Amino acid sequence: MIVQQTAPTPDLPALFGALADPHRLAIVERLAAEGEKTVGELVAPFEISAPAISRHLAVLESAGVIERRVDRQWRKCRIRPDALAAVEGWVETQRRFWNASLDRLDRMLAEGPQAKTTDEEEKKR
Amino acid sequence: MIVQQTAPTPDLPALFGALADPHRLAIVERLAAEGEKTVGELVAPFEISAPAISRHLAVLESAGVIERRVDRQWRKCRIRPDALAAVEGWVETQRRFWNASLDRLDRMLAEGPQAKTTDEEEKKR
DNA sequence: TCATTAATTAATGTTTTTGTTAAATAATGA
DNA sequence: TCATTATTTAACAAAAACATTAATTAATGA
Lengths: 125, 125
Known about the structure:
Helix content of chain A: 55-70%
Shape of chain A: elongated
Oligomer: homodimer
CATH topology of the largest domain in chain A: Arc Repressor Mutant, subunit A
CATH architecture of the largest domain in chain A: Orthogonal Bundle
Distance between the termini of chain A: 65 Å
Structural class of chain A: mainly alpha
Number of helices of chain A: 6
Number of domains of chain A: 2
Strand order of the largest sheet of chain A: 1-3-2
Radius of gyration of chain A: 23 Å
Largest sheet of chain A: 3 strands, antiparallel
């Protein structure tokens, strides 16, 4: 039976949390810039231990930021671009809302001082 | 003396960290959607205490996500859109790198099997 | 088979984050 | 002045995050 593959609703706090650590952010940036890398290659530039990086990779994977595939004795990691798309989509949504609320404020101010929630009116109560 | 106001280089881990908590994310989304709000208005929808929200706001402010101004007995909070721009800029940079590395891979594959790092060659060693 | 390499899991300690309640600070307005 | 309202700070506890070293799992290849 074929199950329709739905893009899982991104857990945004988890997604942002995965990017909130400097080591993890550096890993993501390196994967984006250089493509697929083994765990060992990702460990190399850092001073922290391999187990520490291994756990960072687990965090990135469970947040959907990277995926891993097995290639003989290596685990190769790569970026999942839909994670980047999810972040970008969130930002755009916020910006759209933000612009809309600015527009509303503009209109209110343009309509003149009979509106109840302009700064002028607000000051009076 | 006038000091040139430079946009501070965003601390991306701090920025993502600020967005990594569900309460804080909800606050940011509300500010984006509804504009400036007092601390009390931001506290209202949540079940957690006012001091807890106050600290969340401090986290958001120190990461540059929001700013606060004093209006009589209230502190009004609003989004700093440049924080959103910083996130969006980072994502776009990563995507650009990612596309570039895809292009390199495409070219390598197109150039034929004499390249050393195609999957085919890689399998042999 | 067995030593080597690659990576993860286990056990553990420290630091950070997040929450609570109580107290402090500050502005309003009767 | 003084009670009220708005918000933050202090003191503290619980949970989560992040690191370490040691042990385990798994594949390679001599």
